[in-house]
């Protein structure tokens, strides 16, 4: 059992290192090239999402109830995002364009979520409709 887990972990590291070695070339208009760029764009948006989420969690450090609500909200949003993008890319499932369509969907929804979370970080003092306290 331990050997199986080790082999699976090593395989994951090898796949991740191969994927990260591929660089986006915006001039490469092959489907593979566009898929690589779409995946990297999605990853960049996801990194911004993680920062925004972390910033809110820091602001809510003294409010365990609000932290739990945000965590529940984020988990529900992730489930929605994944289901929505699976549906949105289902028309091209199995095709070479599917990774690009799926990544583009993820990026679009993530960018919207980053904007939404960012608005919580910009609430004016005294705004009772905002669940995140100002700095």
UniProtKB/TrEMBL annotation:
It comes from the Bacteria. Residues 1-21 form the signal peptide. The keyword Transit peptide does not apply. Pfam families: LprI (PF07007). InterPro entries: LprI-like_N. Keywords: Signal. The keyword Signal applies. Residues 24-117 form the Lysozyme inhibitor LprI-like N-terminal domain. PANTHER family: PERIPLASMIC PROTEIN (PTHR39176:SF1), PERIPLASMIC PROTEIN-RELATED (PTHR39176). This is Uncharacterized protein YecT (DUF1311 family).
């Amino acid at each position: 059992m331990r050997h199986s887990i080790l082999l699976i972990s090593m395989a994951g590291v090898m796949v991740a290192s191969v994927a990260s070695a591929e660089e986006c070339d915006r001039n490469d208009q092959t489907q593979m090239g566009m898929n690589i760029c779409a995946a990297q764009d999605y990853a960049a948006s996801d990194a911004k999402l993680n920062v925004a989420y972390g910033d809110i969690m820091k602001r809510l450090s003294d409010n365990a109830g609000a932290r739990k609500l945000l965590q529940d909200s984020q988990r529900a949003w992730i489930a929605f995002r994944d289901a929505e993008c699976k549906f949105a890319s289902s028309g091209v499932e199995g095709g070479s364009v599917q990774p690009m369509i799926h990544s583009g969907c993820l990026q679009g929804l993530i960018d919207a979520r980053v904007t939404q979370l960012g608005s919580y970080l910009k609430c004016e003092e005294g705004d009772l409709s905002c669940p995140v306290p100002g700095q």
